[in-house]
Amino acid sequence: MAKFILFLLSFGLLFNFSPALLAQTKAIAKKETTNIITGADQTEKYLSYLKGKRIAMVANQTSIIGDKLSVDSLLSLGIKIVKVFGPEHGFRGNASNGDHVDDEVDAKTGIPIFSLYGKARKPSKEQLKDVDLVIFDIQDVGCRFYTNLNTLEDVMEACAENGKELMIFDRPNPNGYFIDGPILEDKFKSGIGQHKIPITHAMTIGEFALMLNGEGYMDKHPKCKLNIIKVANYNHSMPYDLPVNPSPNLNTQQSILLYPSLCLFEGTMINYGRGTHMPFTVLGAPELKGRYTFSFKPVGIKGMSENPLYKDSVCYGIDLRTYDTNILRKTGQINLSWLIEMYNAFPDKEKFFDHTLHPAVGSFDFRSGNASLREDIIAGKSEKEIRKRWEPGLKAFKQMRKKYLLYADK
C-alpha cells in the first residue's frame, strides 16, 4: 500500500494532478480490504493506460470516482476526454424515463455530449473516428428491463464494428444475489428487453459484457475487445447500497430492491408510485377505494414523471416503504404475491392488463418477456404453479452464466 501511494504521488508530480484528487485517491486506497471498491475507484489499475489516449466515456450521474463524476475526475487527472455518450435519463441523469434526450455540450466541461437515447442508440463511425478508447461506466440494477443493458450491447457493437477497445469500470449489482423470472422469448424483444435472460440475472455489467461476447449476441460483428476493471472485495451475495440514485424514479435503496418485483406493474392499470416522490414503493388505483385504507395522489413531477397514470386522482392500495427487503434476499425470488393480489382486488379484471387505456402504461407481456405470466394470473394459478414454468429456462441460464462470472456467488 505504501508503494502504491508513493507511486500515485510521483505520478501526480509528473503530470501535475490536483492535490485534492490525489488526496481523494489516497483515501480510496486506504479503505479496508473488506470494503467493496468499484472499478472506477481503483485508479492505480488504469490511469497510466489512459494517459495520452483520446477517450470517449459512456457515463451518467452514477459514474463516479470517490464522490465526483468520473468525467470531471479524469479530466482533472490529465486524461483527455474528447466526448461523452449519455444513456436514458441523460449524462447528468435529469431526464424523465423514456424521454427523448438531445445532443448537447456539457456546460461545466465544454465536452460534447452525444445522446444514446434520442435519434441514435449507438455511437456512429464518425463519432468514434477520433477516439482511441471507449470507457463504459454506468451503475446497473440487475434487471432485464433496465435499459443500461441495451446501451451496453449497442456500445459493444459500435466498438466491434470500428475496431475500438472498450474498457468497463465494473460496479456491484445491488440485486446480484438472485436469479428469477421467466426467460425473455424472442417475439417479446423490445426496448425494455432485448436479451434472452430472466428478469434478474445476478451479473455485473462486466460479466454481462463477457456473456454478450461469448453467447453470440455479437455474431454479426467481430467480438468487442474488452478491458474490465473489476470490483475489489466483492461477491454476488453482498448487499450494496448505491451511493448515487441510478435514475430519477429509483431514488431510494428500497425502490432499487423492490424494482424487480414492482416494475411488472408498469404493464398494468396499477400506479406503482410514479408521480410521487416514493416510486416503486407503493401500489394503488382509484378503483381500489374501499378495499384498502392506504392512499396517495400521483401528480406531474418534472424530471420524474410528468404524466403519471391516474394523475391528480387519489389511489388506494399497498404501502411497501417499510417492507423488509431481507425477505426477498431470503427467498431469492421476485415477489409475485403483490401482482396476484392487485389483480384479484381490481374490480374490472378485463382492463387490468389493458395498456391501451393510458399512454403511460406499457404492455405487460413485454415487461414479463412472455404471455404465460399474464395468462396464468388470469387463470388463477398459484405462485408455485407459475414458477414451475420458469424452472427449465432458469436452470439453463444459470448453467450458461457460470462461464462468464468474475465474482463468486457467495
Automatic annotation (TrEMBL):
Domain Peptidoglycan beta-N-acetylmuramidase NamZ N-terminal intervals: 55-253
InterPro entries the record matches: NamZ, NamZ_C, NamZ_N
The entry's keywords: Signal
Cleaved signal peptide residues: 1-23
All residue ranges annotated as the Peptidoglycan beta-N-acetylmuramidase NamZ C-terminal domain in the record: 257-407
Single GO MF descriptor: peptidoglycan beta-N-acetylmuramidase activity
Protein name (Swiss-Prot/TrEMBL): Uncharacterized protein YbbC (DUF1343 family)
Domain of life (superkingdom): Bacteria
PANTHER family (alphabetical): HYPOTHETICAL 460 KDA PROTEIN IN FEUA-SIGW INTERGENIC REGION [PRECURSOR] (PTHR42915), PEPTIDOGLYCAN BETA-N-ACETYLMURAMIDASE NAMZ (PTHR42915:SF1)
